[in-house]
Prior knowledge:
Elements: E1 3-4, H1 23-26, E2 28-29, H2 32-50, E3 55-58, E4 64-66, E5 101-103
Parallel strand pairs: 1-2
Antiparallel strand pairs: 3-4, 3-5
Amino acid sequence: MYNCRSCLRTQFTAEEMKKEKYLHSKKRGICKACATEYERNQRLLRLANKKPSDYLNCGDCDRTFSNRNTGNFSGNNQYIKWDVNKVKLRVGCPFCKSDNINKF
């Protein structure tokens, strides 16, 4: 059995763990569910460090996200050109729905 160092749960099999260098010898690593969330957060942090004016940070859940609402603005599944006038700025956190957001 393997332990996850992110969520601190036990009882994982080798197939449920992300492949790492010392996974089998230490029986400790990161599970696949935590690995995808961790890598997503790290990618957003790298993007926010490059261009901090385009990203916001939530004061309650400490997540980083874009300051613009993304999605399909035309209502159908057709590609539309990204237009600044059509994109709305965020007023709340998309994860915890809090209004306590700050610039990155």
